[in-house]
């Protein structure tokens, strides 16, 4: 399930909104999901569940899995 909104939120606010709806920011660890997100939000800014909050420049998905090369 994906939620698109016109409300401008920070990454943290977006994460909290998803959690309040028993969801998570999208994890685009498959090409099909990544392509879907890019297609749906061509002209919009959006947040996904990728973060480097633990180590600057070391990107991981919120579920702890590594981000595959070429996605940043």
UniProtKB/TrEMBL annotation:
Q: Which InterPro entries match?
A: C-type_lectin-like, C-type_lectin-like/link_sf, CLEC5A, CTDL_fold
Residues in C-type lectin domain copies: 1-67
> Could you tell me the superkingdom of the organism this chain comes from?
Eukaryota
- The scientific name of the source species is Scyliorhinus torazame (Cloudy catshark)
Q: What is this protein called?
A: C-type lectin domain-containing protein
Which PROSITE patterns does this chain map to? C_TYPE_LECTIN_2
